């Protein structure tokens, strides 16, 4: 590799490809992979994927080990099958197989919103809770292949619910607890769940979240739901509907702790997770069992260099894929101790993360750039007053991390001794695809660096031509890896169309990226109409349709704009119906409307009244222009000659909202 490298302590802010941070010898010495091993694994996986992934399959437990390894085709109908003749149970590989060796080891440390509360659950205890819950689900009529929706806060019960579904072969669909009743209902209806698992209330930052009330509102529109299983989290008084609602603690007390694990095919579904795209409603990304578990285990071990006995903390919510793969399935498959955190980074104060790091002696810490940026603003003292001496590895996920935030994380939080793994991946990919390995990869602040073994990234231009060497283009993946999603639940054609039709034969990620002269990848962000707000993925079309459903709105166009803390903010152009006055009160009402329709994460940061939207003569909204105005880049608006009425643009520029 070319480039300048500097001894620790002499780095400076240098936002170029040349800023290289060397692998630390003490990390490389005991890491699962050093540079040579990474190189050898990458080559082996490329040369003979069948042999490489046959070997890696051994990292999880199988009921019948697979003999057919890879059967994938990105052309035609698109078929993705891994380990197809193997059988296993995901809950058994996360729990049962650890009982003999580490039954009394802590599997989950739960840290409550209130700093005075925590709970430690051993593998043996978790196994028993999962088995009992699995029997409760059976008693509610849940069978193999049925869908169960989970709408829970960050409590141990969320992991228990997921694993209990897996144990009996039911497919879970976790819906983030911040979503509205409408969003929850849409996700239940799409997959036809028969049981919903929720809680009385959630807790976050000292406030309560009315989960059961939201669930009741959602279920009113979901005739497939036969039962609602209700966890007791706050003990808040919530109405229970006789015959439908079941109190989880009471049902558990009556359930047997014996529940054999269902023998599932490797390609049987494990879970559905809804994710936003550039058009239409959120899609149900379907992940299956064998390949997903191998990928979760493989990536968790190598990317975080997880060593036995270490305490590992991923701050995500189980409502997102990060929580699925890197709080629950990956760590538990590897027999790790994983932390589940109910709270938020700034409650009771901006030192909470580091207080928890010290409290539980966390070795590996994985969070999102938006949290890093928010904490960076609060000043170093919140960090430095805690010791953080247990920290060994730091991770980042969810959106591009700007070099400034990266360097703060490295210098202030990690005191330059902790490698940072900037992990690029997606709901669709099941696990990390591009990331440094702590003992192998020289780091560059802001770069996700290099692909993991088995991952073949490619950059293509707008015409689909493959770009070689240093280049910038659309990020595609040339061949399948075991953790890849298999289909969109109930709509395989949408799967094929969304990911494999833009550049035939390639998986198109929706992201843009630059590859530097060292072959390092720098993700530049989405190139489609998806925006990333505080690491939460949102389709602009969803926010537009929520706005357009308001009785006073004629039309809306939504774009992302650069936001110091959130990465991207939501900027909405709203055209009101004839005769409606644009007022400050109406602006507030529309923000509240979107919160209610989708959830707080979709709240617009800025609303600009737009007497008209810039459209082509064929009626297509020119988002390129709207994005530039929102970003206050009104100098080079580019070619506006194809607009039906170019005067519209001038008017929008003049009245730009100060968001
Ligand atoms: C999108 C996927 C990955 C789990 C959480 C988000 C963006 C994710 C990075 C990163 C730059 C990143 C991409 C991607 N993204 N990680 N390290 N650097 N961008 O999963 O909700 O499916 O969103 O998040 O744009 O496409 P998701």
The quaternary structure here is single chain
Strand segment count: 33
Our Rg estimate from Cα atoms comes to 24 Å
Which spans have pLDDT < 50 for at least 5 consecutive residues? 1-14
Number of domains: 2
* Percentage of residues in DSSP E strands: 15-25%
Estimated helix fraction: 25-40%
- Briefly, what CATH class of the largest domain? Alpha Beta
Mean pLDDT: 95
Total of helices: 20
Binding site for Mg(2+): 550, 553
Pfam families: ACAS_N, AMP-binding, AMP-binding_C
Cofactor: Mg(2+)
Domain AMP-binding enzyme C-terminal: 542-620
Report a brief summary of the structure.
Helix content is 31%, strand content 23%. It is an alpha/beta fold and 659 residues long. Helix 2 (35-47) crosses helix 3 (49-56).
Task: Describe the model.
- Mg(2+) binds at residues 550, 553.
- One of its GO terms (biological process) is acetyl-CoA biosynthetic process from acetate.
- Residues 542-620 form the AMP-binding enzyme C-terminal domain.
- Its cofactor is Mg(2+).
- With 659 residues, this protein is an alpha/beta fold.
- It folds into two domains: 25-514, ANL, N-terminal domain (Rossmann fold); 534-655, ANL, C-terminal domain (GMP Synthetase, Chain A, domain 3, 2-Layer Sandwich), CATH 3.30.300.30.
- The chain is built from 20 helices and 33 strands.
- The model is unreliable at 1-14 (pLDDT under 50).
- 5'-O-[(S)-butoxy(hydroxy)phosphoryl]adenosine binds next to helix 11, strand 22, strand 27 and strand 28.
- 5'-O-[(S)-butoxy(hydroxy)phosphoryl]adenosine is lined by residues 275, 320-322, 397-400, 422-427, 448, 509-511, 523, 525-526, 532, 537.
């Amino acid at each position: 590799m070319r480039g300048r490298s500097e001894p620790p302590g002499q780095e400076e802010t240098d936002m170029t490809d040349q800023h290289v941070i060397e692998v630390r010898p003490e990390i490389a010495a005991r890491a699962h992979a050093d540079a040579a091993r990474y190189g050898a694994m990458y080559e082996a996986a490329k040369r003979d994927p069948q042999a490489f992934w046959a070997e890696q399959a051994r990292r999880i437990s199988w009921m019948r080990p697979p003999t057919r390894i890879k059967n994938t085709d990105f052309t035609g109908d698109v078929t993705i099958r891994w380990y197809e003749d193997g059988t296993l149970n995901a809950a058994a590989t996360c729990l049962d197989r650890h009982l003999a060796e580490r039954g009394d080891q802590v599997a989950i440390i739960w840290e409550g919103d209130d700093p005075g509360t925590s709970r430690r659950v051993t593998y043996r205890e978790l196994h028993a809770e999962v088995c009992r819950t699995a029997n409760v689900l059976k008693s509610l009529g849940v069978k193999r292949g049925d869908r169960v929706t989970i709408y829970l806060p960050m409590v141990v019960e969320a992991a228990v619910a997921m694993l209990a579904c897996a144990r009996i072969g039911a497919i879970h669909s976790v819906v983030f607890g911040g979503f509205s009743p409408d969003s929850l209902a849409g996700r239940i209806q799409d997959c036809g769940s028969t049981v919903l698992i929720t809680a009385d209330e959630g807790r976050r930052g000292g406030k309560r979240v009315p989960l059961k009330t939201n669930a009741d509102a959602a279920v009113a529109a979901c005739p497939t739901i036969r039962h609602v299983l209700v966890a007791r989290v706050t003990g808040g008084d919530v109405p229970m509907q006789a015959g439908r609602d079941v109190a989880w603690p009471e049902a558990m007390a009556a359930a047997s702790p014996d529940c054999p694990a269902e023998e599932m095919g490797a390609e049987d579904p494990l879970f559905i997770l809804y994710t936003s795209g550039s058009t239409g409603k959120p899609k149900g990304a379907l992940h299956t069992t064998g390949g997903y578990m191998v990928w979760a285990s493989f990536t968790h071990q190598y990317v975080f260099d997880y060593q036995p006995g270490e305490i590992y903390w991923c701050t995500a919510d189980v409502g997102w894929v990060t929580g699925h793969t890197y709080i629950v399935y990956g760590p538990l498959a590897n027999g790790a101790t994983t932390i589940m955190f109910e709270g938020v980074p700034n409650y009771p104060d901006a030192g909470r993360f580091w207080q928890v790091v010290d409290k539980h002696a966390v070795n590996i810490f994985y969070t999102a750039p938006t949290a890093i940026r928010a904490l960076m603003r609060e000043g170093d003292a919140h960090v430095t007053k805690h010791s953080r001496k247990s920290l060994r590895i730091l991770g980042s996920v969810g959106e591009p991390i700007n070099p400034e935030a990266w360097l703060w994380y490295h210098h202030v939080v990690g005191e330059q001794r902790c490698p940072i793994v900037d992990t690029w991946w997606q709901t669709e990919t099941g696990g990390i695809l591009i990331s440094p390995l702590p003992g192998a990869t020289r780091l560059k602040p802001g770069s996700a660096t290099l692909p993991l073994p088995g991952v073949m990234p490619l950059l293509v231009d707008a015409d689909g031509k493959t770009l070689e060497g240093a280049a910038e283009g659309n990020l595609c993946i040339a061949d399948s890896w075991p953790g890849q999603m298999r289909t969109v639940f109930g709509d395989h054609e949408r799967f094929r169309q969304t990911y494999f039709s833009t550049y035939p034969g390639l998986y198109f990620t929706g992201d843009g990226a630059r590859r530097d002269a060292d072959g390092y990848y720098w993700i530049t962000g989405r190139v489609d109409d998806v925006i990333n707000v505080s690491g939460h993925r949102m389709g602009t079309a969803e926010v537009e349709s929520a706005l357009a459903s308001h009785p006073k709105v004629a039309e809306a166009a939504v774009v992302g704009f650069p936001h110091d803390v959130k990465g991207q903010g939501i900027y909405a152009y709203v055209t009101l119906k004839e005769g409606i006055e644009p007022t400050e009160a109406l602006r507030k009402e529309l923000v509240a409307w979107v919160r209610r329709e989708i959830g707080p994460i979709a709240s617009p940061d800025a609303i600009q009244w737009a007497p008209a939207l810039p459209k082509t003569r064929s009626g297509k909204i020119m988002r390129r222009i709207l994005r530039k105005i929102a970003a206050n880049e009104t100098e080079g608006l580019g070619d506006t000659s194809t607009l039906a009425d170019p005067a519209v643009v001038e008017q929008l520029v003049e009245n730009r909202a100060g968001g």
